[in-house]
Every structure is written in structure tokens, then in C-alpha cells.
Amino acid sequence: GVGFRYWLQVFAIRKGIFGWVRNTSSGQVEALLVGNDETVLGLIEQCHMGPPTSKVNHISVEDYADNYQIKSFDILPSS
Questions:
Q1: What is the pTM of this model?
Q2: Which residue from 58, 77, 75 is spatially nearest to 19, judged by alpha carbons?
Q3: Which of 2, 22, 48, 70 could form a disulfide with 53 if both were Cys (CB 3.0 to 4.6 A apart)?
Q4: Catalytic one among 14, 23, 36, 67?
């Protein structure tokens, strides 16, 4: 309810990162960030702060081994 998904979408598009973001059933935010390693790492660092009204407690990063072909950054329905 703090606009984290929309905030992440705006920053990802500005930085040329593709992927998606969604809320999980447990209330967490899950995202796939695809792009230049340095740019993605920079956005992950920004996620530690998030939008002004958010409180980020933990970020977990995992490698994504599949080839992601979609050239947009979307907000998906909650899982």
C-alpha cells in the first residue's frame, strides 16, 4: 500500500531495465530485473530505500538463469 511496485516500475524504465514486479500472497514484493549488471545492482541498492513511505526490511537477490525476451517492465497481478 505504499506504491513500491509503481516506484520500481518508474525507476526500472528510466534505467532501461526489463522485467516485472508483483506483490506476493505473504505481502512481500517480488521482482525480476533484467539488464546491465551494474545498472541492475544500482537499482537494487535504491530498493533498500524504496519510496518515501516504504519500510524495506530485507532484500534477497538470486540469479535468473533463463533467457528473458520481453522488452518492457510490467506490474503483474499479485501471486
A1: 0.91
A2: 75
A3: 2
A4: 23
